[in-house]
Amino acid sequence: MTTRRTTTAAAAIVLTVGLTGCSGFTGGGDDAAADTITFTTWASESEQDSFEKLAAQFEAEHDGATVDLKIVPYDQMFSNIDAQLSTGDAPDVFRVDYGNLGVYSSQGQLLDLSGQLDDEDSFQPAMLEAVSFDGKPYGVPHQTDVSALLVNTDLATAAGVTDLPTSQEDAWTWDEFADVSAKLRASLPAEQYPFVVNWQQGGTPRWLSWLFQAGGNVLEEDGTTPAVDSPEGEEALAFTQSFFTQQWVPPTSSVKSTSYADTLFGEQTTAMAFVGSFLVPELADTDFEWTAVPMPVDERGATDLGGNALVATADTDQPELATEFVNFMASADAMTEFCAATNELPTRTDIDASSIDFAVRPDVMPVFVDQATTIQPSDVKQLTSPYLAEISVGLQDQLEAAFTQNQSVDDTLSALDQSIAQATR
To answer: Which of 161, 209, 239, 420 could form a disulfide linkage to 226, CB 3.0–4.6 angstroms apart?
Structure first.
């Protein structure tokens, strides 16, 4: 998820993009407010710059239209949106991560975009699934980002790990990844660790990548019946629990930790780290050499569903203009420009992600592009369930018990199924 710490430098900034125009909407004078839409989002520095440029371009192409762009910190984003929705003061358009979108669409709070998406067939099927509820689209899949594994090449070489995979075809199996981790553990001093996983706090659903890799599911096909307590769930939990018992990860890096994976990697506390592509720019200036390799595979490859959609609120006074804006932002040209500037990934099949001129560390981005191909529509359906937010609460509690309190695999899976059943009632 492109959520964590992307707005620490943008504390409650409110920006209004100026008015220009050439075609589309008419306005001016007393009618000017009628052609204004509000757009609320969080943003990293590069995202903010891109949003500003694209909003100005939209205004230039739509005579009389104004985009009132508001940048807020992520940790305030949805509490603000919820309060505004309850009082009828919500923005016309806002940004939402795929995991939270289902909460709003299932409650009738978003504009149904059925038949209103430009080039609907050009979006990746998995990403269309991410913005859909009951078969209807309630937003545009604006971008995605996925996790891959970053490797400190000097520390890896010192441990005898020199054969690094570059694609899904030669990705490490779980057994091979365990062998690499054991080599690093033997080579590193006690205060350093082989790797860290980015499942802290709001990233807890990233544990599901391991479940999917094992061939498991969190929910059955009906979308409500728990499916974690299974042989696949047992395999995934036992393997990830071993990260702590084998001292492969810092003991303070569990799901409730406030020590994030990219920070620990940047400090060289760990030799490897599972990190989303959106954090590549933050790690570009480290004083050591690193590269990216694919996530390990078991029965299949899998990764997390990062990224965000743009949605219009159901009660917007400007449904036509709001729809025009989200379509513009998700157009091939605008999406390519945004992704190139932010090291994020496109959601359209007519954009060749491998040909994007990424602004930072373009040498490692092909691994993330390749990793994104492991996302399956069935994964997306579960990761965008309207119950996911509540499921995640139980997931965090039970994984924390398994990882830091030695709760057994059987007890953890049983408790997880019970909490999921309660969440989906």
So the answer is: 420
